[in-house]
TrEMBL record:
Its cofactor is pyridoxal 5'-phosphate. This is Histidinol-phosphate aminotransferase. Belongs to the class-II pyridoxal-phosphate-dependent aminotransferase family. Histidinol-phosphate aminotransferase subfamily. It catalyses: L-histidinol phosphate + 2-oxoglutarate = 3-(imidazol-4-yl)-2-oxopropyl phosphate + L-glutamate. Signal peptide: none annotated.
Amino acid sequence: MSAPETKSSAKPVANPWILAIAPYIPGRSTTDDGRKVIKLSSNENPLGTSPAARAAFAGAANQLERYPDASATELRDVLAAKHGLDPARIIYGNGSDEVLHLVAGAFAGPGDEIIHVRYGFAVYEIATRRVGATPVIAPDRDYATDVDAILACVTDRTKLVYVANPNNPTGTYSARDEIARLHAGLRPDILLVLDHAYAEYIDGDAEDGGMALAESASNVLVTRTFSKMYGLAAERIGWGYGSAEIIDAMHRIRLPFSITIAGTAAAVAAVADTEFVDNTRGHNAEWRRWFSDEIGKLGNAGLRAVPSQANFVLVLFEGKLTAEVAYKGLMDAGYIVRWLPGQGLPDGLRITIGTADETQGVLGALRDLVETAG
Ligand SMILES: *Cc1c(COP(=O)(O)O)cnc(C)c1O
């Protein structure tokens, strides 16, 4: 008896649009030679996590055999009360990354176009290609989001626009009137996704009006995360707010148990700990200002801080010291930052605002590198 004839080369072949995805590169936590160093590469909270959130997380250890509440009722109720929202219109996911994927999956497919800005969050392009849609890249205005450039990219095929505000990796912020103008310029059948991962870090009480648009318009989704300000990146809790129709479509493709009991408990406790959030916001504002000012003093060496409203600063290297040399030099000095040549930013380093010691340390190391470069 002989086996049915098969070509020895036969094998499953992934969809071509999947193979076109350049994999996401996470921030590193060790050097090339494996040394553990100070990690300023992933925009994590340098003050840690709310002690109340930590205690709530530990308290969940006696429920490990249980499935989580698939409808996340407690989390939605807490978020709705905190932000003045309708709990029925809150979606949640395994980090806001999952929410960003869900919206593409529910609203776009092969033949459709999804717009994002040139120096935008890497997940947008992956989420776009994953569903077979085509990424369309809007040029920036000196690293900032350019509303007119986005509107000029709209075609009959445009289904969705991703805008992070503040943006990552640039840290730039588009004010309320700019976001209103963007929304007003989009056809009502185009979904505007406003990614508010860093919304809590904006100076003063400023906000871009996105949540009010999500409340009233039928084509806006706002996403938020517990990973940054709330210091819960490990626990992967993100959420979004939009019209009942948008949220309903996303629920249909959501994994039923994508957020955990422990993560939910930590998130609920974190929302109540306003002191931790206030401390983080104050710390970040102070050291972001200090760091940006100090980089400004290195202007004659070609260094420049892009104005940031987030918990990191994009530093441009336009003189003798290149970003690549600075990246390696900082690693030797014990600091890992983010160099993003793969995202079209070979001349920039994105540096997370750390503790006071870390922020002063990384600035001192940069100053030494500037001196060595001459
Ligand atoms: C960090 C970040 C997120 C949040 O990701 P999570 O999946 O919630 O951890 C979303 N958008 C942007 C722009 C980010 O930088």
